[in-house]
Design a protein that fits this description.
By secondary structure, the protein is α+β, with helices and mostly antiparallel strands. The protein has two domains: 2-113, no CATH class; 121-184, OB fold (Dihydrolipoamide Acetyltransferase, E2P). It contains three helices and five strands. A five-stranded mixed barrel has the order 1-2-3-5-4. Strand 4 (169-176) and strand 5 (179-184) form a beta hairpin. The longest helix is centred in the middle third of the chain and has 30 residues, at 84-113.
Length: 186
């Protein structure tokens, strides 16, 4: 009976992984929805917006189920661990270790492959930028700033509502959403 349970876990985990890989390859598209995971379901439910996956992502959970089934199948064939009371806890620990290693592997891989074109907005406050599209009084213009060796542009308003002509240096005071609020530098 326990061998059947382990076999089912192994099969379900493998089938889920294969179906996810095939469906993700052929049907996986990003429809612009973003909950901090970059639009990837395998990232789990994490609102940090940082690259990586959650420990409770479908990928890691499928890895746990597959490893539990495989380890349990192996342990149930060894005389010393044949009892389900021994094989199940040992298989659960082994599966947890394997799932944790997969979790670490994916997070390390995602962090290393993260492109430098995505800037960390919070580090921009206080940085000097240049007005590239004039900011009218009480209106919005455009600024350019450099971060990580790349030049970016963003919509901007002045904190005091005053106009600023193109070419003037400004300091980024705060950022709300995608809109930058700047102050004229002296």
């Amino acid at each position: 009976m326990d061998t059947l349970l382990y076999g089912i876990c192994l099969a379900v985990g493998l089938i889920f992984t294969l179906v996810s890989a095939v469906a993700g390859h052929f049907f996986g598209t990003d429809h612009g929805g973003d909950v901090g995971t970059g639009g990837h379901a395998e990232a789990g439910f994490d609102s940090s917006g940082l690259p990586g996956i959650s420990f409770f992502s479908p990928t890691v959970l499928a890895c746990f189920v597959t490893a539990f089934g495989a380890c349990g199948s192996i342990l149930s064939r060894i005389e010393a661990t044949r009892s389900v009371w021994v094989s199940a806890p040992v298989a659960a620990v082994a599966a947890s270790v394997i799932a944790f290693l997969v979790f670490l592997l994916f997070n390390t891989m995602f962090k290393r492959t993260q492109g430098s074109s995505e800037s960390r907005v919070s580090s921009l406050v206080g940085q000097i930028a240049s007005v590239v599209g004039p900011i009218p009084e009480g209106g919005m213009g455009e600024i350019a700033y450099v971060q990580g060796g790349s030049r970016y542009t963003a919509p901007a308003r002045t904190t005091n509502g005053k106009a600023v002509s193109a070419g003037k240096p400004v300091r980024i005071a705060r950022i709300i959403g995608t809109q930058f609020y700047v102050e004229i530098t002296d």
